[in-house]
Amino acid sequence: MQVLNQITTAPRRTLALISAICVGMLAFGMYLQYVQGLEPCPMCIVQRYALILVAVLAGLASLKGQSGWWKTFGVLALLASGFGAFVAARQSWLQWNPPEFATCGRDFYGMIENYSISRAIPMIFRGSGDCTAVDWTFLGGSIANWSFICFAGFSVLLLVLLLKGGKRT
């Protein structure tokens, strides 16, 4: 009960914390990509965009004290978080039940060899890894599994904030 009171009586802090966690998750994703050499798949890239949206919207919601301001951005952050959870759940399902032939991305060198630079560059930003591959795990969960847990947690926190309609502090 004490935790629920902390969440609802200080929504600006909770929203700022959600935004900071999203930024941390994005930084960890960049570390895995550029330091560890893991290639993100298209679904990973979509989850990154959802994280950016949640971070920005929760950050904006934490800036002003007016109830209408933080609730509007809170609802938008909840929608972005729900979308991110959906994509992460779909990728988790694909990892647990991989299709026989289909993957969800092309490799980097195949794009450069088969397409002009003007077409290949946007493809690079879409990701090139295989969505069904599990390249990294922590406590038995893949990146997609942990991403789903985080997005679901953000959704629950945002929903509690919006339903309780806490005082601005």
SSE diagram, text form:
Layout: H1 2-9, H2 11-34, H3 42-61, H4 67-96, H5 108-114, H6 117-125, E1 137-138, E2 141-142, H7 143-164
Helix pairs in contact: 2-3, 2-7, 3-4, 4-7, 5-6
Q: In angstroms, what separates the terminal alpha carbons?
A: 19 Å
Which stretches are low in confidence, meaning pLDDT under 50 for 5 or more residues running?
none
Cα-atom Rg, whole angstroms? 18 Å
Q: H/E order of the elements?
A: HHHHHHEEH
**Structural class by sheet pairing and helices:** mainly alpha
How would you sum up the major sheet? 2 strands, antiparallel
Total strands:
2
Major β-sheet strand ordering: 1-2
- Per DSSP, the total helix count is 7
Task: Please give a structural write-up.
- By secondary structure, this protein is mostly helical.
- It is 71% helix and 2% strand.
- The protein contains 7 helices and 2 strands, in the order H-H-H-H-H-H-E-E-H.
- It has a two-stranded antiparallel sheet.
- Helix 5 runs antiparallel to helix 6.
- The longest helix is centred in the middle third of the chain and has 30 residues, at 67-96.
- The model has no long low-confidence stretch (mean pLDDT 76).
Any descriptors?
about 170 residues; mainly alpha; 7 helices
Give a nutshell description of this structure.
The protein is an all-alpha fold and 169 residues long. 71% of the residues lie in helices and 2% in strands.
